[in-house]
Write a structure and sequence with these properties.
The chain has 113 residues and is an alpha+beta fold. Helix content is 41%, strand content 12%. It has helices spanning 6-15, 20-29, 31-34, 37-45, 63-68, 76-82; strands at 57-58, 72-73, 91-95, 98-102. The strands form two sheets. Strands 1-2 form a two-stranded parallel sheet. It has a two-stranded antiparallel sheet with strand order 3-4. Helix 1 (6-15) crosses helix 4 (37-45) and helix 2 packs antiparallel against helix 4 (37-45). The longest helix has 10 residues, at 6-15. The protein is elongated, with a radius of gyration of 16 Å.
Length: 113
């Protein structure tokens, strides 16, 4: 999950990406999360589906790790074949009739496009 931040990783695995209301409730009720607001912020900003009209699918960790954090699992080889990075441009693309937003350098985020 995160790079060498075992405490945050543990909290992510424990609480998962459940959106803002559930995370704020957990901060009020769970001292471990209240004591690590960086993890709480990460859980809020990394939310999966909040009525935004899209889903984030992860395929680089194990199925258990990904689903344990409340994300959808996707097979990396299958998705790489379907969404070939060599054929996609940064920004909006259409693949098999599906509109997707591709980010070649995810570390830069959507604003880096």
């Amino acid at each position: 999950m995160s790079r060498r931040r075992p405490t945050i990783d543990t909290l992510i695995r424990k609480y998962g990406y459940c959106g803002t209301p559930a995370t704020l409730e957990a901060v009020e009720d769970r001292p471990a999360l209240a004591g690590n607001l960086s993890a709480a912020a990460h859980l809020i900003h990394g939310l999966r589906k909040a009525g935004l009209g899209f889903a984030i699918v992860r395929g680089t960790l194990t199925r258990e790790e990904i689903e344990g954090a409340h994300y959808e699992y996707g097979d990396l080889a299958e998705y790489t074949a379907k969404y070939d990075p060599d054929k996609l441009a940064d920004g909006w693309n259409v693949v098999d009739g599906e509109e997707i937003f591709y980010i070649s350098k995810p570390g830069a985020g959507a604003l880096g496009v």
